[in-house]
Amino acid sequence: MQVYKDVEFYPACGNEVLDLDGTTWYQLLPEEQRALREDPGDENSLGPASPDPFTTVQSFAPLSQGPKITLIRGINVPAVVAPGPGDDIGDVTVFADGLALFESDSGDLTTWLTREQRTYNWVC
């Protein structure tokens, strides 16, 4: 496990890529994020789950609700809200299993990352 402090990253839409120390990190897809965060025995659970039992991270801030939808001239388009204080800087914890966790300094944004390339079917 390795921790990178004060990393600049703003995971507003869920498809942003992080370049960190020569490694490219991709955000997990929404269903992958949910699989890591929910109790598998309770489909209504939204509580956090550790990636493995040996993790020292005890709790996580809630995932971002995703992009805000704004009505502009009768068309629904995603609108990215500007980052609040501490939303676009935080710590990245890299785990031995190849996953990483970004937690913003504000505590409002958390996302899981992988080195395996992901294809996102949305644009933000």
* Cα-atom radius of gyration: 15 Å
Tell me roughly what share of residues is in helical segments: under 10%
Q: What is the first-to-last residue Cα distance?
A: 31 Å
Please outline the major beta sheet.
6 strands, antiparallel
Structure description:
- The protein has 124 residues and is mainly beta.
- The chain is 6% helix and 35% strand.
- It is built from one helix and eight strands.
- The strands form two sheets. Strands 1-6-7-8-3-2 form a six-stranded antiparallel beta sheet, with no helix packed on it. It has a two-stranded antiparallel sheet with strand order 4-5.
- Strand 7 and strand 8 form a beta hairpin.
- The protein is globular, with a radius of gyration of 15 Å.
- The N and C termini lie far apart (31 Å).
Write the layout of secondary structure elements.
Blueprint (H helix, E strand, L loop, with lengths): L1 E7 L8 E4 L2 E5 L2 H8 L30 E5 L2 E5 L9 E6 L4 E6 L5 E5 L10
Antiparallel strand pairs: 1-6, 2-3, 3-8, 4-5, 6-7, 7-8
